[in-house]
Amino acid sequence: MLRLLILLVAIGAGGAAAWVSTSLTPPPPPPSATAPDPVPEAQVLVAASPLAQGAELAQDDMRWQAWPAHTLVDGFITRTDQPDAPDAFIGFLTRVDFSAGEPIRAERLIERRGGFLSSMLDPGKRAVAVRISAESTAGGFIMPNDRVDVLRTFSRQGPSGQTQMHSETILRNVRVLAIDQTTDTRTNDTVLGKTATLELEANEVEIIVAKEASGLLSLALRSFADNDDDARIVATPAPKPAVRIFRGGVLEQVDVR
Question: Where is the secretion signal located (predicted)?
Answer without folding.
Answer: 1-18
